C-alpha cells in the first residue's frame, strides 16, 4: 500500500511538471496573426521622430511614411520607410540618391513577444538594412535591430507602433528583450552576436542608438495580433 501511494504521488508530480511545461510553452508562443490570416499589407505615417546615438549624435525628422506586407500566416515581412524633413545640428540629412532631407530605410519586420513591457506585449523587431546618409559633410551609417511595441491586441485595421528611449535623448532603447520564433529570449546589445541599432559617424565605431517615434498604420483588412 505504501509503495502504491508513492507511485500515485510520483505520477501526480509528473503530471504537474507536464502542465507547468505546457503552460510555459504557451506563454512564450511568439506573437502573430491569429490562424487563418491572409496576406496583409499596410501603410503608415508618423509625426516628428528622433534617432539618438550614445555620445550625442542626434538626427531629427519631421515625419515619415511607411509601407510593408506580411505573407499569409507569416510573422515576418518587408518594410519601407521614408523619413522626411531630417536634420542634425540644423543641417539637412539626406540619404544617398534621395531628395534633400529624405532618408529611405528598408529591411525586414518580425512580429515577436516583447519582454521589457510591464506585462508581455506584442512587439515588432525591425532588422534595418545598412543605410547611408549625409548631414552636411558628415557621413552617417545606421544598421542593426530595433524592437518597438504594437497595439492594440484587438481585431482592427488601425494600429500604433511605438519606439521609445529609456529617457528622451539618452540613446538607449527602452525595448531590448524579446522572444523569437523558437521561444528563446534574445537581448539586443551594443556589441556581440545580437547587436541593437548602431550609428556610425564618418566610419567611426558603431554607437548604440534608439529611436523615439509613434507611427499609426492601417492594414488592408481587420486582423488580430496576439502576444
Entry keywords:
single chain, globular, 227 residues, disordered N terminus, two-stranded antiparallel ribbon
Could you give a short description of this structure?
This protein has one domain (34-226).
Overview of this protein structure:
The structure is a single chain. This protein has 227 residues and is mainly beta. It has one domain. Helix content is 11%, strand content 53%. It is built from one helix and 17 strands. The strands form two sheets. The chain has a 15-stranded antiparallel β-sheet that branches. Strands 1-17 form a two-stranded antiparallel ribbon. A hairpin with a 2-residue loop joins strand 10 and strand 11. The N terminus is likely disordered.
Total count of helical runs of at least 4 residues: 1
Helix content: 10-25%
Number of strands: 17
Mean of pLDDT: 82
What spatial form do the alpha-carbon principal axes imply? globular
Main beta sheet, described? 15 strands, antiparallel
Ends distance = 47 Å
Order of SSEs: HEEEEEEEEEEEEEEEEE
